[in-house]
Write a structure and sequence with these properties.
alpha+beta, 4 strands
């Protein structure tokens, strides 16, 4: 009987320590700064209105409301490519 009490106590302590470790890992993960910084300003062509944004290591893209994807160079901010989305 004493063995079972010790076993239950040990398993409870292990579970509590495991939950604390998971919580600490989540806090560390979500409190870190993003690895790729967002551009401070994006200049779109006249008449274009943004509806979505995504980015890669050396580029970022804006999806416009008129079904175009505008791909910009991260270093220069210049428009690299325009892709027309067909309905």
């Amino acid at each position: 009987m004493r063995f079972l009490r010790r076993l239950v106590t040990l398993l409870t302590a292990t579970m509590i320590l495991g939950l604390l470790a998971i919580f600490a890992l989540l806090v560390m993960r979500f409190s870190s700064e993003p690895t790729v910084a967002l551009p401070s300003e994006i200049t779109l062509p006249s008449g274009a209105s943004a509806s979505a944004f995504t980015q890669g290591p050396d580029w970022y893209a804006v999806v416009t409301t008129d079904n175009q994807i505008l791909i910009f160079d991260r270093a220069t901010g210049q428009l690299r490519q325009t892709v027309q989305i067909k309905p």
